[in-house]
Structures are given as C-alpha cells and as structure tokens.
Automatic annotation (TrEMBL):
Residues 8-184 form the Thymidylate kinase-like domain. Belongs to the thymidylate kinase family. Keywords: ATP-binding, Kinase, Nucleotide biosynthesis, Nucleotide-binding, Transferase. InterPro entries: P-loop_NTPase, Thymidylate_kin-like_dom, Thymidylate_kin_CS, Thymidylate_kinase. Coiled coil: none annotated. One of its GO terms (cellular component) is nucleus. The keyword Kinase applies. It comes from Komagataella phaffii (strain GS115 / ATCC 20864) (Yeast). SUPFAM superfamilies: P-loop containing nucleoside triphosphate hydrolases. One of its GO terms (molecular function) is dTMP kinase activity. This is dTMP kinase. Its EC number is 2.7.4.9.
C-alpha cells in the first residue's frame, strides 16, 4: 500500500494554489509546487519567468522545467511509500502545454519527463471564460500571462486530456472556492484509503 499522487493542473490564475493548499490540508498530505522556485534550477526559472528581458532559448527553459521536476523525484517517491499523499500544483502537463504553445513539438516536450512518476489522478481546473481569468488580480505580471498564449495552452491541455486516462475536468466558471474544493474531494476521496498498485511512469 502506498499513498496517492494527485495533480491539479490549469491555466494561470484558475485557483490552483488555493485548491492544492486546501486539498493538502484535508488530506494531511505534502504539497509540491512546480516550478519549485527554491531549488538551484528553480532559481534560474524564477529569474526567467520574472524578467522579460532574459534571453533564455525556449528549449533550454523547457529542459530546466523538466529538470526541476527530476530534482524532486526522490523526495516524492519516499513520501508516497511512507504513506504521505502528495499533491502537486502543476506537473509534466504544464511543461508540455506551455512549451507547445510556444511552438515546440509534443513528443520532443514529453521526452525529458519520460520516467517520472505518473499521477493517480490529474484534475484539470478548466475556465471556459478566459476573459474573467485575465481580469484576476496579478494576471500579466509574469512571462506567459498573455491572453493569446493562454488560449493556446488551454487547447494543448485538451490534447493531453485525450491522451491520458487519469484526467478529470472541473469547470470552474460560476463556482466558488468551496464548491470547487468539494468537487475535487469527490474525485480524490476514493484514493484516500491508499493505492495497491505501484507507481506508473511517464
Ligand atoms: N510553466 C510551469 C511552464 O512553462 N512549464 C512548466 O513545466 C511548469 C511547471 O510557469 N505561467 C509555467 C506556467 C506558469 C509559470 O507557474 C509559473 P506558476 O504556477 O504561476 O508559479
Ligand atoms: Mg502563474
């Protein structure tokens, strides 16, 4: 028996931070946010995301986002095997969806993440109304927070959703924080008794 690996994905400003924190608290789990800006590679990524003049090539940024996940693998596997649920705020799918939106090929994007642990469930917080997202506080502060790019990222998430069967979608339009949380809980609850199968891999 091991604990479940749960991923919450979505565009910028769709409430992932709020929802992953709430879920983690209820599960008594461990929260992992990607990018993890505290690690050596995460610091480079933070610099890239917050400084629009940083000239890093797209491919390099993509590989750093992937490396940032590999930095955490040992940690995550240890937690799961000891029975602590792990909740992730973004994961492989954000890596692929954002890099594809900038023109990189899907298979190329997936390659460096090959071998990472696969989530038991991926919950996509989907906003049908993108205008309301771009009006949320803070939108536009970082690289990629541009309406046209978000539309393309959302389409890419749909492509990924059709490829991976652990995906579940929650439409967030018109729902408040607690309603979204309860919906997430319905999806996660069956996993709280523990998972009998080993971890799958990308
Ligand atoms: N992002 C995040 C990527 O482009 N690739 C990745 O692999 C990951 C994990 O980083 N706009 C992008 C999506 C976001 C940005 O994430 C910062 P956040 O969740 O806003 O801190
Ligand atoms: Mg963001």
């Amino acid at each position: 028996m091991r604990a479940p690996l749960i991923v919450i994905e979505g565009l910028d400003r769709t409430g992932k931070s709020t929802q992953t924190a709430k879920l983690c608290h209820r599960l008594n789990g461990f929260l992992v946010k990607f990018p993890n800006r505290e690690t050596p590679i995460g610091k480079l990524l933070n610099q890239y995301l917050t400084d629009a003049s940083n000239p890093m090539p797209l491919e390099v940024a993509h590989l750093l986002f992937s490396a940032n996940r590999w930095e955490m693998v040992k940690n995550i596997e240890d937690l799961l095997s000891k029975g602590t649920p792990v909740v992730m705020d973004r994961y492989v799918y954000s890596g692929v969806a954002y890099s594809m939106a900038k023109g990189l090929d899907i298979e190329w994007c997936l390659a460096p993440d090959k071998g990472l642990p696969k989530p038991d469930v991926t919950i996509f917080l989907k906003a049908n109304d993108l205008d309301s997202i771009s009006q949320r506080e803070g939108f536009g502060e970082e690289r990629y927070e541009v309406a046209s790019l978000q539309t393309s990222v959302r389409n890419n998430f749909e492509i990924l959703r059709s490829r991976y069967d652990e995906w579940k979608v929650i439409i967030i339009d018109g729902k408040d924080i607690d309603q979204v949380h309860e919906h997430i809980w319905e999806l996660v609850c069956p996993l709280t008794r523990g998972v009998t199968t080993g971890l799958n891999r990308f």
